[in-house]
Design brief:
The chain has about 950 residues and is an alpha+beta fold. About 40% of the residues lie in helices and about 25% in strands. The strands form seven sheets. The protein has a six-stranded antiparallel sheet with strand order 30-29-28-33-32-31. The protein is elongated, with a radius of gyration of 52 Å.
Length: about 950
């Protein structure tokens, strides 16, 4: 077919209805036949009856070659009809002239042949007319085909495309013919398609490619393009015939199938990995033969290196035995029951020999595997070695028996406690009788001087006896029941809550949890065990932090409602399940599930909260809307015990600081200047009155800020300070005094006057720099004695100072070395005096500590150590506390027990360095990776030197 014979436009061929198409084909002078995939005729027009000499009905089902032999018995076709070709029939007799035949195979989009089209026409003398007619016939057939058909010249330029192309692409002839058709290709496919087409044209090879065409609606769809060359007798390519088939749906299905197969393979691999790594042994056997189908490594390790192929092994060499020792019969085996009866076996226990030869306990489950027709195909069994579990269960039963005995013993002890308390209650009435009786006589005013003195002495003596009796009762209760007793003393509620918040703040910052605090509008002083109540708040905060996710919020709020103080700790964490809420305060009770295993703990914290709260006469309750909705804990404490309403009872620990008063024969303090700092006016006036009664010159201050101002203006000979004060406590106050006053402050005697009267409280005060400790309630004689013991050493013997003050010659030597030779020289002198290996100066730099200078007793060349994160060092506690800190503070500071430095540094002593405005700027410290004693002289020497080191640092920039 030449380009000149191609119709100007095939758009004139309008779609025809089937009936119209049949009528048109019957009028043609060309016989048209259509054959199926087996080359048998399925359609013939009326012209075929005339040219073939038979009827249309007779042609149906006849082979194409057989139909042509009706005209020319000698004709032979290559079957099946795979390629287009033409031939001439020589008819028998003189019925008509020779016939020209054209055969065209019909193919699917994937290239599969589904039939053939045959056209027959009478040969006429005019060759051009015959050629034009045949071209017209071919043109008609091609336009009627459902596929997209095209032809190209030998050079590869497309010269014809059927109407399906224009319908599919929405383009005109000029936009498709020649090489313009490439613009309809997907941009990613153009270069590849052009290369493949040129290669086929140059080599004369079949053109076969998949690419994407733009449909008329703008969507790109995958097509299968195929073209074959038509050659002349010399083998030259004279024309290319091509088709394109839309295979987008098939391709998408194929890609989805491949994706599903890949996903299936991935899941299969994951399933195999899971089965192989499961703690249970897994095995599967064929239901008909009992032969092994599968076993994982855990099963193999349980029964031996290799799993027996046949089930008989388990009733032969290694029998399975019931709990009573009887061996299983074959029919009793869980696998057999699953494969033969369809029984599902769950957690059946038995014993058998393990791979190491020892007898073991096992727990198994078995299930049948059913086929689609309801038949049992196989049996699957899982096996767990529970030998250790059974051992622990036996141990647990033993422990339960021991616990039962211990419970009986505890109940007996509880009865003994009740009997003891009943007796103690009776004994308490004896001193009360004397106290109340003599108090009423004093109120009457009818006693003479002698009787008045006797009444006072009797009341005092019985009061002391009652204090002692109460302490004995508490000690007895602690011994019998193991419960802690309360040490009641005044405290300030806001200060208590702030201290608890400070204790948990590092943990909150580590989890990026925001702490919110709503304090009481004004200070509220109460009586109670401040440390135990602080422990209540600390436990609730710690519990909230534990169950609050990263980035959450924990809030604590204090309010006074009527006669109660309410402390509310609220979080937005995981919440509490409704069924567990009633048990949240029980000892050793925890919510079940993965979250409990993830967080850990023994469940004692909230039980201790309830015990301590109830011990103070209060109540505690919990609320939660359920899992994931947070929780709130409400602590109610009664306001009946306010500090201004009744005095604190003396604690037993405070008794050791008091001398039993017999006479007021304490030493005189004429000329002694003293500063008394206490936020409680009554306590402050009492101490001042006692000291003035002995001739002392006393100045008072209501807080740390006022006290420091008075010291800087006119330093006293002795400082007496309360510990529990709002905003700045006594420990911090003393550190500020030592820092702000330099060498003079380092030698100032200081006495702690506090209701914190335990042995550990006295030790903590000593570590903070106090030379004496007087417990509240204050008694005159111990107070005067404490002052007298300190003041003469300062006034009369300046070279023999308190052991808490640095020796002047040592201090002068250090300051001189610091000024002349720098920080490292001073550190060498300090290190030589210390039992510690290292002495160093660190400077604060945000969250980091920059090592300015460091000396090592074992390596004299070390002059600077590594920089370290602040929170990973004990220096964080020095800067947080604001005063000297040592590892001996472990009993008083819970942070030390969990501190990151505890595994590296075993002994530490450090003091804070401050700038001109009093802000922490670094630390001066001793430390050692091994435990060592801290000499008494180290702390005052460090404290005295600290201001000079800070000044040097500031000067050096």
């Amino acid at each position: 077919m030449s380009a000149s014979s191609t119709p100007k436009s095939s758009a004139s061929v309008a779609p025809l209805a089937p009936a119209d198409l049949g009528a048109l084909l019957d009028r043609l002078e060309v016989a048209l036949l259509a054959a199926d995939g087996e080359d048998r005729i399925v359609f013939a027009n009326r012209t075929a009856e005339r040219l073939l000499g038979t009827t249309v009905d007779a042609l149906h089902g006849l082979a194409v070659e057989g139909a042509l032999r009706l005209v020319d018995p000698q004709v032979a076709l290559a079957t099946p009809l795979l390629e287009p070709h033409a031939l001439t029939l020589a008819p028998r007799g003189a019925r008509h002239a020779a016939l020209r035949v054209a055969v065209v195979p019909l193919k699917e989009g994937d290239g599969a042949r589904y039939g053939a089209a045959v056209a027959l026409a009478e040969r006429i003398e005019a060759a051009d007319a015959e050629r034009d007619d045949l071209l017209a016939y071919y043109q008609f057939v091609i336009e009627a085909m459902p596929q997209m058909v095209w032809t190209a010249g030998p050079d590869g330029a497309v010269d014809y495309m059927n109407v399906r192309w224009r319908e599919y692409t929405g383009l005109r002839d000029e936009e498709l013919l020649g090489w313009a058709w490439q613009t309809a290709l997907h941009p990613d496919d153009r270069e590849r398609c052009a290369h493949v087409w040129r290669t086929s044209v140059e080599g004369g090879n079949v053109y076969d490619i998949e690419y994407r065409w733009r449909r008329a609606d703008g969507m790109y769809r995958w097509m299968l393009g195929r073209a074959v060359p038509l050659r002349d007798r010399d083998g030259r390519v004279t024309r290319w015939f091509g088709t394109c088939t839309d295979i987008d749906d098939q391709k998408m299905l194929l890609e989805e199938r491949q994706r599903l197969l890949a996903d299936l393979e991935s899941k299969q691999a994951l399933l195999d990995t899971i089965i192989q790594q499961m703690p249970a042994g897994i095995v599967a056997r064929d239901a008909k033969t009992g032969q092994l189908l599968f076993s994982n490594t855990q099963f193999q390790s349980m029964v031996g290196a290799s799993v027996p192929v046949a089930l008989q092994h388990f009733v032969g060499d290694n029998p399975i035995r019931h709990a009573d020792g009887r061996a299983y019969a074959m029919a009793e085996l869980p696998m057999v029951r699953a494969m033969t009866r369809g029984e599902v076996v769950v957690d059946e226990e038995f014993s058998m020999r393990r791979s190491d030869g020892s007898e073991g306990a096992f727990r198994c489950s078995a299930t049948p595997i059913w086929g689609s027709k309801g038949e049992i195909l196989a049996g699957a069994l899982s096996l767990l070695d529970v030998t250790d579990v059974k051992k622990r269960e036996r141990e647990r039963l033993g422990l339960l028996a021991a616990e039962k005995a211990a419970r009986a013993e505890a109940e007996a002890a509880n009865r003994a406690k009740d009997e003891f308390l009943a007796m103690a209650s009776h004994e308490l009435r004896t001193p009360l009788n004397a106290i109340l009786g003599w108090a009423q006589l004093l109120r009457s005013g009818q006693l003479d001087a002698s009787a008045h003195l006797r009444a006072v002495e009797t009341i005092e003596r019985n009061g002391r006896a009652q204090v002692q009796l109460i302490e004995d009762i508490l000690d007895g209760s602690r011994i019998i029941t193991g419960k802690l007793h309360l040490e009641v003393r005044p405290f300030e509620m806001n200060e208590l809550v702030r201290a608890a918040l400070d204790a948990v703040r590092p943990a909150a910052e580590a989890k990026q949890i925001r702490l919110e605090h709503s304090a009481l509008a004004e200070p509220l002083r109460m009586l109670g065990d401040a440390e135990r109540l602080q422990q209540v708040v600390w436990n609730l905060l710690s519990n909230a932090l534990k169950f609050t996710p990263k980035g959450g919020t924990v809030a604590v709020k204090c309010t006074r409602t009527g006669d109660d103080v309410e402390i509310v700790v609220r979080d937005d964490g995981q919440g509490i399940a409704p069924d567990f809420l009633p048990h949240v305060f029980e000892r050793f009770r925890q919510a079940e599930g993965s979250t409990t295993r993830r967080h850990g703990g023994l469940g004692l914290g909230l039980a201790l909260v309830r015990h301590l709260t109830e011990a103070h006469g209060g109540t505690v309750r919990a609320e939660s809307q359920g899992p994931g909705k947070g929780a709130a804990f409400y602590v109610h404490l009664p306001m009946s015990a306010v500090a201004s309403e009744r005095p604190s009872l003396p604690s037993r620990a405070g008794e050791t600081d008091r001398a039993t008063p017999t006479t007021l024969s304490a030493p005189q303090l004429q000329g002694v200047t003293a500063l008394v700092v206490d936020d409680e006016a009554d306590a402050r006036d009492l101490v001042a009155t006692v000291l003035r009664s002995k001739g002392a010159i006393v100045t008072t201050a209501a807080g740390a800020e006022e006290g420091l101002r008075l010291i800087l203006r006119n330093p006293p000979m002795v400082l007496l300070s309360d510990i529990a004060m709002p905003e700045v406590d006594g420990y911090t106050f003393l550190a500020q005094v030592r820092t702000a006053t330099g060498a003079a402050g380092a030698t100032l005697p200081a006495i702690a006057i506090t209701a914190y009267a335990r042995e550990e409280d006295r030790r903590r005060a000593a570590n903070a720099g106090f030379q004496a400790h007087v417990a509240k309630p204050v008694e005159p004689e111990p107070l005067i004695a404490a002052v007298a013991n300190l003041v003469p050493a300062v006034r009369e013997a300046p070279t023999s100072r308190s052991p808490r003050a640095p020796r002047p010659e040592a201090f002068q030597k250090l300051t001189r070395a610091l000024e002349l030779h720098g920080i490292t020289a001073a550190l060498r002198i300090l290190n030589a005096r210390s039992a510690h290996r290292f002495t160093a100066v660190y400077r604060l730099d945000g969250a980091m500590l920059r090592n300015v200078a460091m000396v090592d007793s074992e390596d004299a060349q070390v002059e600077r150590g590594d920089d370290v994160p602040l929170e990973a060092s004990y220096c964080s506690l020095v800067t947080a506390r604001g005063h000297t800190f040592t590892t001996e503070d472990a009993a008083e500071d819970d942070r030390l027990r969990q501190h990151p430095a505890r595994d590296v540094v075993r002994s530490y002593c450090g003091t804070v360095l401050r700038d001109a405005e009093g802000r922490p700027m670094g630390t001066l410290c001793h430390f050692d990776p091994s435990p060592c004693d801290i000499p008494v002289s180290e702390i005052p020497l460090l404290e005295a030197l600290a201001p000079y080191v800070a000044t040097r640092l500031l000067r050096e920039g």
